[in-house]
Design goal:
The chain is an alpha/beta fold. It has one domain: Rossmann fold (3-Layer(aba) Sandwich), CATH 3.40.50. It is built from eleven helices and eight strands. The chain has an eight-stranded mixed beta sheet with strand order 1-2-4-3-5-6-7-8, sandwiched between helices. The chain starts with 13 loop residues before the first helix and ends with a helix.
Length: 288
């Protein structure tokens, strides 16, 4: 683990950090509201009439649930999508916009909820999303999911949580193999979360530098290095772009894709477009 005072943006002022990481302010309230409306509308359209198993409790300790969408004949490879919202907003209900496009390519989608901050600590949120991956591996066959073909992805805070399923050191406690995550696609991920200790989000997640370092994928044992595509939008927040550019070469088993014309909120919606570069890259991860 690197020095606790040596982290991306540590030399910036609080105002400069806010500019780098406050993507909602960068987008503006009108555009942000349009993006959120698209999340909901596209998700509702994607799952309308789609075969699946919504509302399954995957973690008895928290009672949190997940939705399974796009099942079919036999066992299907599965994309586990972890929603963003800086760990304190959004839900599975607005996060299944890719389900129909993947279903048409023979891939199922699993979208879990997790308890939001500040009700849950970030350590507990990480535990829950790891439990969701473990549920797919242990019980997925009962719901048409192939436990040997799990790809995990997520946007923003969900990109951080994706990273926390990619690293090693947690799998034994959940009774899953080290390579349970066969590939990953974090969008606008946060991989060294120490900058969070100095921006508004910390009012909710309440981290100090030591805990933030312990919850940073970039500072943890990589374990089995699965293939990965690190995605960000051309017009993403500067802090998020820097995070992917720093972690991708350290991971050493993935590529960086910066999508032209996209911002922090709409780049992930390209998963719903089967003709997009992002969608093609995800499909490619299932064949590695």
């Amino acid at each position: 683990m690197s020095d606790l005072e040596d982290w991306p943006g540590s030399g910036l002022s609080d105002e400069e950090l806010d500019v780098a990481y406050n993507v909602r302010r960068k987008a503006g309230e009108e555009l942000f509201a349009r993006h959120m409306a698209r999340y909901r509308e596209m998700s509702e359209q994607a799952v309308d009439g789609l075969p699946g198993h919504p509302g399954i409790v995957y973690d008895e300790a928290s009672g949190e649930r997940l939705d399974v969408w796009g099942t079919g004949d036999g066992l299907r490879p599965v994309f586990v999508f972890l929603h963003g919202g800086y760990w304190m907003a959004l839900s599975r209900d607005v996060s299944s916009f890719m389900a129909r496009a993947l279903h048409e390519r023979g891939v199922a989608t699993v979208v879990p909820d997790y308890t939001l901050a500040p009700e849950a600590s970030l350590e507990e949120i990480v535990r829950q999303v790891r439990a969701a991956v473990a549920w797919v591996h242990r019980q997925g066959r009962e719901h048409g999911l192939d436990p040997e073909r799990i790809v995990v992805g997520g946007s923003s805070a969900g990109g951080h949580l994706t990273g926390m399923t990619m690293v090693g050191g947690w799998q034994d406690a959940f009774g899953v193999p080290e390579d349970v995550v066969k590939a990953a696609m974090p969008f606008s991920g946060l991989f060294d979360i120490r900058p969070i200790t100095r921006i508004y989000v910390n009012e909710y997640v309440k981290l100090d530098l030591e805990r933030a370092a312990a919850l940073s994928p970039a500072l943890l044992d990589t374990g089995h290095r699965c293939p990965a595509v690190f995605v960000a939008g051309e017009h993403d927040g500067d802090g998020f772009l820097e995070q992917s550019r720093l972690f991708q070469p350290r991971w050493g088993a993935g590529e960086l894709m910066v999508v032209p014309g996209r911002d922090h909120f709409d780049v992930v919606l390209d998963l719903a477009d089967p003709d997009s570069r992002v969608s093609a890259a995800l499909t490619g991860l299932f064949s590695r």
